[in-house]
Amino acid sequence: GLDNPAQVTFLTASGYTRREQVQETIQLLEKKRVRYVLWSVWLDVPFPGRPGPFDDARLDPLREYLLTHYRPVRNFGGPDYEPVWERTQ
Question: For the whole model, what pTM was predicted?
Answer without folding.
Answer: 0.82
